[in-house]
Every structure is written in structure tokens, then in C-alpha cells.
Amino acid sequence: DWSSDVCSSDLTEIQDEILQIGPYKYKVEGIIGLYQLEELLDIRLPVREFDTLNGFLINKIGYIPRQDEDDLTIVHEDVEFKVSKLGENRIEEVIITLPIEKTSTNN
């Protein structure tokens, strides 16, 4: 049915924007939607205030980082966001590290 086609194509697009690189680490494009990121990683983000990860992080930093500032790290709700690639007037790539207790199951 058409809804599964839509979901499949949306998931493929999202998978292009996020890549798991370790047990608790993800490489994410700055343009990813904050709502999508919140859903995929099961983390709390200010989805009503910002559309993209890029906009959220620039707001947290307080300015648009220069291209030589690609070692910035922001922590929000125990989740670490490390800027790994900057473009002109935007954050292009971020490494997200989830807290270990967030990813472990409590039995």
C-alpha cells in the first residue's frame, strides 16, 4: 500500500542523514529534522522551537561557528553533540554520543 512506500522512502532519506558509528555514537547531518532525530534516538529535544539539528545547535552555541571551530561540543540532557564538520554559515555534520544508561535496559 502507499503508506508503506512513503515510510520506506522516508526511512531511506533519514538513513542517509544518520549513521551509527559505535555502540552509542551516531554521525548525523546537520540538516536532519530535530523531530526525526528525537524519534530515532529516543532522546528529548526542543522540537517545538527548532526544525533542524543545525538550528538547535547554533542556538545553543549562541553564534554561527567559523569553519576552523570544528571541535565544539554541546551537551543537552546528557547527550553529547560534537560538531565534526562545518560549512559556510551552518553545521554540516555532528557526532552524537548517547549516555550509556540511556541505551542500556533496566531489568
Secondary-structure map with pairings?
Blueprint: H1 2-17, E1 18-20, E2 25-29, H2 34-41, H3 53-61, E3 73-76, E4 79-87, E5 90-97, H4 100-103
Antiparallel strand pairs: 1-2, 2-5, 3-4, 4-5
Task: Give an overview in words.
The chain is α+β, with helices and mostly antiparallel strands and 107 residues long. 35% of the residues lie in helices and 27% in strands. The chain contains four helices and five strands. It has helices at residues 2-17, 34-41, 53-61, 100-103, and strands at residues 18-20, 25-29, 73-76, 79-87, 90-97. The protein has a five-stranded antiparallel beta sheet. A hairpin with a 2-residue loop joins strand 3 and strand 4.
Discrete helix count:
4
- Termini Cα gap: 38 Å
SSE order: HEEHHEEEH
Mean pLDDT, as a whole number?
A: 84
Low-confidence stretches: 1-12
**Annotation, overall tally of beta strands:** 5
User: Helicity, in percent?
Assistant: 25-40%
Order of strands in the sheet with the most strands? 1-2-5-4-3
Structural class from helices and strands? alpha+beta
Global Rg:
14 Å
Morphology: globular
Tell me what portion of residues adopts beta-strand conformation.
Answer: 25-35%
The main β sheet shows up as: 5 strands, antiparallel
